Amino acid sequence: MAAYSYSNGATATALFLIALLFVASNPLAHGQEELPMAGLSVSGSLCCTPTGNCPGRGVSGVPVSLNCNVLGVGVTVLGRGITNVNGIFNIYVPTVSGLILGLPIIPCVATVQLRLSPLVCPVLSTTTGLLTSALIPVGTVVNATSVVQNVGLIGFIKSIRI
Question: In angstroms, rounded to a whole number, what is the distance separating the alpha carbons of residues 5 and 103?
Fold first, then answer.
């Protein structure tokens, strides 16, 4: 029969992790209210590459749409943004009834309509279709009255129209 011994540091660390897991999985204490989800903040970049993904030179002045699956409505455009001089865009959408936020999977995609001007990005000027990216949670902003979920792009995928 093997004997195991643990140092006090390892035991303390294990107990801390178990306590942290317990606190994170417990519902809010009695008398506290859950803060409402106030919206969705989407940030991303568009670069002049064959896929539209970075690294690469940012593409400015390009419209980006946020298309979400809203319960009872279907897929709809909830927000639009324009890339800045560095190819970066930010779209903020306040809470929409039927848009479920706070989950590991965001029911939205960011899209860019292709054919871009050859002056803006020659490599994306020869194809029609869409650049589409799923979204991934990257954090939350909590204030005294609400929560905003921050999300980023997973990466664009090109769908070509024939």
Answer: 40
Distance (Å, whole) CA 120 – CA 47: 10
Per residue in 30-44, pLDDT (tens digit) is: 444 556 667 889 999
pLDDT value at position 143?
76
Contacts of 121-127 with C-beta under 8 Å, sequence gap 24+, read 121/48, 121/59, 122/48, 123/48, 123/49, 123/50, 124/48, 124/50, 124/52, 124/59, 127/158, 127/160
